[in-house]
Amino acid sequence: MIRRRSPVRTALVHALLITVTVVTLFPVALVVRKSLSPGNEFELSLNPIPPKVTTEHYRAVLSARDFSGSWLFGRQLYNSFVVALLTTILGVFLASTAAYAFSRFRFPGRRFGMMIFLVVQMFPATLLMIPLYVILDKLGLLDTVAGLVLVYSTTAIPFCVFMLKGYFDTIPRELEEAAWIDGASRFGMFWRVVLPLSKPALAVTALFSFMTAWNEYILAETFLSNEASYTLPVMLKHYVGDKSANWGAFAAGAILVSMPVMALFYMLQKALVSGLTAGGVKG
Amino acid sequence: MAEVKLENVKKSFGEVTVIEHLDLTIGSGELAVLVGPSGCGKSTTLRMIAGLEEITEGTLSIGGRVVNHVPPKDRDIAMVFQSYALYPHMTIFKNLAFGLMLRKTPAAEIHSRVNDVAQMLGLEKLLDRKPKQLSGGQRQRVAMGRAIVRRPKVFLFDEPLSNLDAKLRAQMRREIARLHREKGTTMIYVTHDQVEAMTLADVIVVMHRGRIMQQGSPLELFDRPANRFVAEFIGSPQMNILHVTAVASGDGLALEADGFSLPAPGGFRLERGQRVLLGVRPADVMMLGADRSEEVAACEGEVDVSEPMGAEALSAVTTPVGSVVVREPGHGSVALGDRVRLGFPADRLHLFDGETEVSLREEES
Known about the structure:
The complex is a heterodimer.
Chain A (H helix, E strand, L loop, with lengths): L6 H30 L19 H7 L9 H33 L5 H11 L4 H15 L5 H26 L2 H10 L3 H12 L1 H17 L2 H6 L8 H6 L9 H35 L2
Helix pairs in contact in A: 1-12, 2-12, 3-6, 3-9, 4-6, 6-9, 7-8, 9-12
Chain B lengths: L3 E10 L2 E11 L4 E5 L6 H9 L6 E6 L2 E2 L10 E4 L11 H11 L4 H15 L14 H13 L5 E5 L7 H18 L2 E6 L2 H7 L2 E6 L2 E6 L1 H6 L4 H6 L6 E10 L2 E6 L2 E4 L11 E6 L5 E3 L10 E10 L3 E8 L2 E8 L9 E5 L5 E5 L12
Parallel strand pairs in B: 3-8, 3-9, 6-7, 7-8
Antiparallel strand pairs in B: 1-2, 1-4, 4-5, 9-10, 11-12, 11-14, 12-13, 14-20, 15-19, 16-17, 16-19, 17-18
Helix pairs in contact in B: 2-3, 2-4, 3-4
């Protein structure tokens, strides 16, 4: 049954949605304006239309080179991409196997383990900075992709385990029992039955892991000291330093950096919506 | 084809024991129905045979091989689940072929076996669809097909028809009976529906609180229930049970209660003063109208409820010993509020001990 809404109600809903959209997009519009306007100085105008359009900032960001002449943006894009991708793969792999165990097996420390995962979510990343720095230093992983992947995984995995366990709990056990009788091993049940049915939840966790790694700044700034090993957020921040501030390049860089995430969101939106609601129904 | 044998099997979940000392042998090629109210342990028994639940104590053997610690996939069984448990992400073809694929059956053989089964169950046109595009009855067929295609030694059914409407249920029931006739495979079928049990079974096993109450052919259970539980469980409408006492009367004994008197039927072990549960099926009680006034009634009463159903009529008669349900063929002979006299034919009675509720019938020799 489709309920017919009154025109007044429809108008109100639309007015609300338009307001929310404007409020959300206005700051983005200001960044777009800055990225397209000539000049490097900070502007206090609220007008989102650039006075004059130029692509100089984009060209500057994209063509930045270091002293030895190698292409910095390409290098940093590659760093960011590798870090984010490896974090996603490691995160989803470890989180899905762990979540399956938490969902299906009864073992000592199961409740405690889930609790720990929840508790670590309370600590902000800045608090972890010093211990993580010491650990990475001892392991010789400072300034490396591997080190960063490890650090990001530790923050992404607990959330992913929680998310996936909730989803796995909703998959009827009888499906696995049927597969078991059909001849599947434990891993077979997981791989051939549970994982294919969990695509929406896997999409959410993958995107979350990817975004965590892609957007993270504080830890990357702390652990990376060599310009060639920077990820994109670190690169961005360095356009606005104490001594000089290039707001135009910063804005252009910000737009460039957010584009892959937006594309990813757009591609996964269908899976995301069903994944988030499926997790929500069971409470 | 294989015999399934449970010897002294016990099952506990932690502190709670759900099955105690279960001894059960299901002959090769038999269709055995485990029946009982929910929580009686019938599904647990089936799941132990499947290998989905561990056996706490005792031994289980299939085809002469003890399989207590053999994983489900190596027991050569197939199971049809109540929820069907079809793999939602696979096509019907894949659902049917999954077990064969896991066992590395050659592709050509998988195709021919799946196609044979699909044809047998009328699923040929649905092979490319996903389970959610199928109706309940079609899904049920796929679940059956998935079991058949594996050609197991033993089929296990866990309330396979309880999610279907009445008409489909009757149809699928006949198909399962046909399947059993054609394949001759051992089948173990769990249900709480005694009609399914009566119509399908070679052997019915009535369970209650983790114990077997009686095991036998459907008519054996119907005609000679071993105890009150089986008497009331098998047969619809339920058997009437009246509380009476055995008292001396002339040379023999009579069953009496306030406003009720009946000469004790032969063939039962009775002692004077014994409290007895008298069981009589609604179809066996006679309404003694004016035309049969010469017959001796056991009691009188007033018609309290009258349910004409066309082919038969059910009436509940309030008597001094409690309400007695009577089933008459056709439109029935009485109306609401009528005073009636009830006759109890001696050869259709069941007597149970008032304390133990066990049948008092003398063993036939």
